[in-house]
């Protein structure tokens, strides 16, 4: 145990953010560089080394949180990094992007602010990179087996790294021009600078993983041809079919899916554009959807110089604190969150539904008409007399995703079966109905968190390894049927 009285002597202290007026002028991460290390030992000491550490259950990776908290408290960064990497291939991703269900399940959180697990995690991995404790793990021998991984998001990268380290020859196919999937083009730079992805890719290259960009399986290369080339295939193609808003005026110019808008801002940071083809500069921006992707659109619009930003959510405003009956510990509660993007300004409107859009004579969106809604007999129903319109010269739809891409032909060419939710069906080993074809991440689970994607990739890798060799020593932290601790 780090410090038997740590949770009594120290309160929760989180990473410091740069001033709003400073950070909205650039695209760097919002946190003050180096601000965590001076406080992280005390924060790690708050871990109580519980008899039953429920943080393990909250985290699908089964991260050894009390162990690396103890090492961080003692400032034994090498040992902390080893324990962190024992269950997580990419802690610098989760430490920045995961909403931390582990903290919601922290035993200390029953009656006090929980341990700052995310901050400890990111401190350990950043220190490990700084000291050279992150090195390629090159397999001692090769199996002679080949694996194709389709998709280079967190699930695909995790599966690829595990299989490469097991001795298989792995090639990752990505339809975009750079590796990273939504980590690269869906997550804004101010949440995670892309240098973190780049150095992991270089580590994976050194280990032997090969990368093929600009190739979309199903269009550029038939799925059947790919299957003939490799002994196994892992589908980590995500759930990229965005939910649309079929209301009058949807065809007007200036209305985009979030994943049409966000990648262009990232491409500016990559040097592909001087200015984004779609920009919020000087415009009244409306973001439809109250989740993390919506918040990413809000923060991006701020940095592009929007005249105003309004975020709409059809559901009621969440509670500020956990409800002891409806959302009991250790479940992951749906609480009111103020992200860094929300700190930077804009208005958030709850319990409203868009009725239609209104444009000008040139077909550009100018107004969004909405109405307030309420639950009546368990259904969201418009409230009479609450209709109004708000200015909207740029609208982004961030309402989630409904399943994997069906338009590129991949599902049909492989002959894959889908489950009742439209996800690619798989068995206990993450194998689809097609022998030798496996699925990991959102394509099989549905839209989920980054920590679940990495867990899926690791677990699917075990299934592939068993298929290729008859046995496997790779870890499998989850089963395909496992779900988050939620009510």
TrEMBL record:
<protein>
    <submittedName>
        <fullName>Glutamate synthase subunit beta</fullName>
    </submittedName>
</protein>
<keyword id="KW-0314">Glutamate biosynthesis</keyword>
<dbReference type="Pfam" id="PF07992">
    <property type="entry name" value="Pyr_redox_2"/>
</dbReference>
<comment type="pathway">
    <text>Amino-acid biosynthesis.</text>
</comment>
<keyword id="KW-0560">Oxidoreductase</keyword>
<dbReference type="InterPro" id="IPR009051">
    <property type="entry name" value="Helical_ferredxn"/>
</dbReference>
<dbReference type="InterPro" id="IPR017896">
    <property type="entry name" value="4Fe4S_Fe-S-bd"/>
</dbReference>
<dbReference type="Pfam" id="PF14691">
    <property type="entry name" value="Fer4_20"/>
</dbReference>
<keyword id="KW-0028">Amino-acid biosynthesis</keyword>
<dbReference type="InterPro" id="IPR051394">
    <property type="entry name" value="Glutamate_Synthase"/>
</dbReference>
<dbReference type="InterPro" id="IPR023753">
    <property type="entry name" value="FAD/NAD-binding_dom"/>
</dbReference>
<feature type="domain" description="4Fe-4S ferredoxin-type">
    <location>
        <begin position="38"/>
        <end position="69"/>
    </location>
</feature>
<dbReference type="InterPro" id="IPR006005">
    <property type="entry name" value="Glut_synth_ssu1"/>
</dbReference>
<dbReference type="InterPro" id="IPR036188">
    <property type="entry name" value="FAD/NAD-bd_sf"/>
</dbReference>
<dbReference type="InterPro" id="IPR028261">
    <property type="entry name" value="DPD_II"/>
</dbReference>
């Amino acid at each position: 145990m780090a410090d038997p009285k740590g949770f009594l002597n120290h309160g929760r202290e989180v990473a410091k953010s740069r001033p709003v007026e400073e950070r909205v002028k650039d695209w760097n991460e919002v946190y003050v560089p180096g601000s965590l290390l001076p406080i992280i030992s005390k924060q790690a000491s708050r871990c109580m080394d519980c008899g039953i550490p429920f943080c393990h259950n909250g985290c699908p990776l089964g991260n050894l949180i009390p162990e690396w908290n103890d090492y961080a408290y003692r400032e034994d960064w090498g040992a902390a990094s080893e324990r962190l990497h024992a269950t997580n291939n990419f802690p610098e991703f989760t430490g920045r992007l995961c909403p931390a269900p582990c903290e919601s399940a922290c035993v200390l959180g029953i009656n006090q602010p929980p341990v700052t697990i995310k901050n400890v995690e990111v401190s350990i991995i950043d220190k490990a990179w700084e000291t050279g404790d992150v090195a390629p793990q090159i397999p001692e021998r090769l199996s002679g087996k080949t694996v194709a991984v389709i998709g280079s998001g967190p699930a695909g990268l995790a599966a690829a790294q595990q299989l490469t380290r097991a001795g298989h020859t792995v090639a990752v196919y990505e339809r975009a021009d750079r590796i990273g999937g939504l980590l690269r083009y869906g997550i804004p730079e101010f949440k995670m600078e892309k240098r973190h992805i780049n150095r992991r890719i270089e580590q994976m290259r050194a280990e032997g993983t090969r990368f093929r960009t600009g190739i979309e399986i199903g269009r550029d290369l038939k799925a059947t041809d790919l299957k003939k080339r490799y002994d196994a295939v892992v589908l980590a193609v995500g759930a990229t079919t965005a939910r649309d808003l079929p209301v009058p005026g949807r065809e007007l110019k200036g209305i985009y899916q979030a994943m049409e808008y966000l990648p262009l801002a990232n491409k500016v940071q990559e040097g592909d554009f001087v200015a984004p083809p779609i920009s919020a500069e000087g415009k009244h921006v409306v973001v439809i959807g109250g989740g993390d992707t919506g918040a990413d659109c809000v923060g991006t619009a701020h940095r592009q110089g929007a005249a105003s930003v309004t975020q709409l959510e059809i559901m009621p405003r969440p509670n500020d604190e956990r409800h002891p009956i409806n959302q009991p510990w250790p479940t992951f509660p749906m609480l009111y969150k103020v992200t860094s993007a929300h700190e930077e300004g804009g208005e958030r409107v709850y319990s409203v539904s868009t009725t239609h859009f209104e444009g000008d004579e040139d077909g550009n969106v100018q107004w969004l008409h909405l109405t307030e809604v309420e639950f009546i007999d368990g259904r969201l129903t418009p409230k009479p007399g609450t209709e109004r319109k708000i200015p909207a010269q740029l609208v982004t739809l961030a309402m989630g995703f409904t399943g994997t891409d069906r338009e590129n032909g991949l599902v049909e060419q492989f002959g894959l079966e889908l489950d009742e939710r439209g996800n690619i069906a798989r068995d206990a080993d993450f194998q689809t109905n097609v022998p030798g074809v496996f699925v990991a991440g959102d394509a099989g689970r549905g839209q989920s968190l980054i920590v679940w994607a990495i867990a899926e990739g690791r677990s699917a890798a075990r299934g592939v390894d068993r298929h290729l060799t008859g046995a496997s020593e790779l870890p499998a932290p989850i089963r395909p049927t496992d779900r988050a601790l939620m009510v």
